[in-house]
Structures are given as C-alpha cells and as structure tokens.
Amino acid sequence: MSTRIVALWSTPEDAEGFEEHYASTHLPLAKSLPGLKNAIAMKALNGPYYRMAELEFESADALGPAFGSPEAAKLMEDTGHMQETFKTTCEVLTFVDD
Domain with 63 in it: what CATH number? Predict the structure, then answer.
C-alpha cells in the first residue's frame, strides 16, 4: 500500500524568492529522500494554498527510514528556513492508499 506525504504551502510574502529557492534547493532535497518512489510539485490556481508537493513511498514502513535520514534532516531544516525567510507556512498530511 503506497503512502504519501503531502505538503501544503501558504502564499509566501516574497513569491519570486520562494519559487527560486523551492526549485533550486527545496525540491532537490525532497527528491533525495531514501526510498522515494515518486515526487510531484504543483502550484495552485486558486484556493487557500499556494503550492502542493506529494512525496510517494512504497509503504508506511518506508517512512521511518526516509524521515530518519540525514537527507530528511536537511529537508526539514530547509522547510523551517523557507517558512521564516518567506513568511509562509507548510502543513503536512500523510495518506495511505485504500
């Protein structure tokens, strides 16, 4: 059963700076997570969120090693940096396939 982590970003104060950092730093960090099966990043056209990213893993059991890794520590550090720098928030949800 696939497991997905979904990150929902609010609108940043500096969208241009956010986009530059997101593409050059944050997304590559996310894609470096061990066991990652697929990654999708999208920009919202409407609604309460600015951006969404979906990280897919083979199973819930794959999340522990992935998020206990040095790569995940760098990703989480960068998430905090982005929230502070660009005055945005990131909500994270976990989903499993039925």
Answer: 3.30.70.100
